[in-house]
Design brief:
The chain is built from six helices and eight strands; from the N terminus they run H-E-H-E-E-E-H-E-H-E-E-H-H-E. It is α/β, with parallel strands linked by helices. It has an eight-stranded mixed beta sheet, sandwiched between helices. A hairpin with a 5-residue loop joins strand 6 and strand 7. Helix 1 crosses helix 2.
Length: 162
């Protein structure tokens, strides 16, 4: 008798989720323009984190247009987040130490995004994005305020705030 193997979690679609995350920049009051570097934060000891980083970097390619901005990715190991340099956002892959990287993002007053909603619920991330099975965007209002991220009213009607 064969056993059916059911995954305990749904695999994130890094390519689609970075596209959703990029589009949200157009809803920031005073949002960025020109080249915007996203630190794609990953844990090299966790294969799923590395795979998500690879998907995101591939999707970004040499740059992804988002309104007046062009997003480029910079892979950053989670332990090196504090030395990531001047980045427009930290995109945290599944499995990184959200609290540590979130603290770095807050100290730098930088947007933090993840496809893992647990990051948003914990307050380590400003925004969580999911593209599968449907687009869902969740914003942690307190964390957004802590980094000075203000979203346009039209965006607030499309998202869930916690």
């Amino acid at each position: 008798m064969a056993l059916l193997s059911i995954p305990l979690c749904v695999h994130a679609d890094g390519a689609r989720e970075i596209q959703v995350a990029g589009r949200t920049l157009t809803f920031l009051d005073g949002g960025p323009s020109g080249k915007v570097v996203f630190a794609i934060v990953f844990d090299p000891s966790k294969p799923a984190s590395v795979a998500e980083k690879d998907e995101v970097m591939s999707a970004l390619g040499s740059g992804m247009a988002a309104g007046g901005a062009t997003i480029v990715g910079k892979p950053v190991e989670a332990g090196a987040a504090a030395s990531a340099g001047d980045v427009g956002a930290f995109y945290m892959t599944h499995g990184v130490n959200y609290a540590a990287v979130g603290a770095v993002a807050k100290s730098k007053k930088t947007l933090s995004i993840s496809s893992d909603m647990a990051c948003v619920q914990s307050g380590a991330c400003v925004m969580g994005v999911a593209a599968t099975p449907k687009v869902e965007i969740v914003v942690n209002s307190a964390t957004a305020a802590a980094v000075g991220a203000k979203f346009k009213a039209a965006f607030k009607m499309m998202i869930k705030e916690i």
